[in-house]
Write a structure and sequence with these properties.
alpha+beta; 13 strands; 36% helix
Length: 273
Amino acid sequence: MKGILVVNHFLKGEKFDTLHAHLTRAAAAMGIELETKTNLDLACSDEVSADFILFWDKDVNLAARLEAMGLRVFNSARAIELCDDKAKTYLALLGKVKQPKTFIAPLRFNGETPDDFIETAAEKLGLPLVFKECFGSFGEQVHLCESACEIKSQVTDNPFLLQEFIAESSGADKRLEVVGGEVVACVRRENKNDFRSNVTNGGTMTACTPTYEEKALALTACNALGLDFGGVDILDGGYVCEVNSNAHIINIMNAAGVDIAPKILEYIAGKIK
């Protein structure tokens, strides 16, 4: 069996290299040849030959092109697109799982700041509230704002949303990893110095056991987004906060002692036989 691991050419660093090498080793241990190619390598490829694509990137246009070429892509282009854009994630899950109350900023042109939207949203959501750019990872472009003026100071030309601050879960959440409709690992993330729980921002991870309700939330979210595998962040109080189509599984492996890589590969192998 031969697969291609697609990664981003323009994201470099030890944590990415470690993850990619780990996935490749896990595949080799299962007798799967997994060749690493970047989105740049494949950008102009007219022919791509593989039994499957393990798409560990957010280049959704490339993922969609590979699918159009007849290749099996995990996760699908559509699932990655929904997870990559926080506004689309929120809308796809609306009415299916509990989420913090959220308002998506209107489409803007010419660098205008939507002052009326910000002031109305701040009144309805209460302060402080959470400002999130729609695109970003590792807690980047996510800010806790205490006033409308502070919200306005974060606004760029990028799309954003404003979200209710769940104070009871400040600096803490649970990350549930789902593969093939099963919760395979769970960690509690805590940060004593930041409202964001991300390990990148100084948070810690410890293994924990999710409740039945939390498992159900994670499975419902992944199903609604069409994910074969993913990481679901659940705040205290049972709110789904974010969903990741390709979460950084090395941190979870180190904290929970669960290697998710072979579970993903076993799932894919079962799907393409």
